Amino acid sequence: MHIYDYIIIGSGLTGLSIAHKLSLETKNILLLESQDELGGSNRPTTLADQMINNGLRFYPATDSGVRALENFESQLGLKLIKSIEENNPETYEASGFKPFVGFGEKPPLFYDQFSYFLTSKYVELHLQPWQWVQQLKEKFTGTATPRSFVTKFHFDDPTAKNPKVTHVTVNGNKVYHAHNFIFAAPLKELPFLMPDEIMNPRLKNKIAKAKSWQTVCLDLFHPEFSEQKQNLFVLNGTTDDDLGPCVGKFISKNISPNISQWLSFIDFEDAEDTENIGLVLKKIKRQIKRAFPELADKIQKERIYVSSSISGGDLKLNANLTYPHIENLWIASVTSATAPNLLGSLQTSQMVIAALGFGNNPTIETETLPL
Fold first, then answer.
1. Which residue range is the domain that position 143 belongs to?
2. For position 368, what pLDDT does the model report?
3. Are residues 221 and 301 in the same domain?
4. pLDDT (tens digit, 9 = 90+) per residue, 154-164?
5. Given this model, what pLDDT does residue 337 score?
6. Of the N and C termini of the chain, which has fewer Cβ atoms inside 10 Å?
7. Are 117 and 152 in a shared domain?
8. Helix and strand counts by DSSP (H, E) for the chain
9. In this predicted model, what pLDDT tens digit does every residue of 308-320 receive, in sequence order?
10. Which residues contact 243 (CB under 8 A, 6 or more apart)?
């Protein structure tokens, strides 16, 4: 029976970053991914034969954000930070475009997620996030198995005061053993893997009912239309609804010419009905047409992507991010991190790496953002 040093569940940016860093210390690592390929929501994709990010990507230039990115540069051995730029999003009203100054008394329900894009400065990147994932995959020297859906954690004695995880079941019939386990999948999946003796039904129910959001991404290819402005656009229109605004950007010509990327958010439960996703997409398209009427007839291709849960749930962990009373199970779900999105992924991975004794713990601070 083979026993791995580490088994990591989830190969998004967080899990893949942890796996790569640990593989510098030991190759006896198993990385389990339920999808067909590694990378999670940051895996590369294509539109009009161009390799692009899997939806709009933005990296805030907060102090802690820059430090996390510098740590990641050291891990990869690559220069990622090109420059620090002012973030000057614009919005559109009947009189035309104007600076976006906030939502006033009616912030969207998903403001905590949306505000990620509203920091005062952002990082212009040398390499795009999809390229980060490619680098991590190439440099990882352990074992990775896609299409591996973890269905259960097993413990030596679930009723003991300090039980240990011994192995996991994958795809219902395969079993893998390890000394240490790192859960880097969405937090909402964790209750399904834990026996009631470890995670009581009340906590499972709390996580299941926690408010959670998914991103709805729309990528457009319009070869006969180009927008000179490279800033973000926050579009909401005049319709009084609960769908909320969208944010988007025309991608730089030297990265992906004639492509723009837009996104909004949808409640996890609402997303179970595809008609609700359709309503969000219709609003995004309607607002793009309102702000850029000449673009509507020049769209040749579009791509739609809906992420898995990106937020929701709050789980009290030990200071070293291990699950309470279980010293060999680390929780690295970015959905429970202080920051969302790319920044949350890097911070979470670096906190776990530090807890394992292989790096420095990043400092986290918040920035006051416009309402």
1. 3-42+135-209+312-355
2. 35
3. yes
4. 999 998 999 99
5. 58
6. N
7. no
8. 7, 18
9. 887 666 788 999 9
10. 264, 279, 280, 283
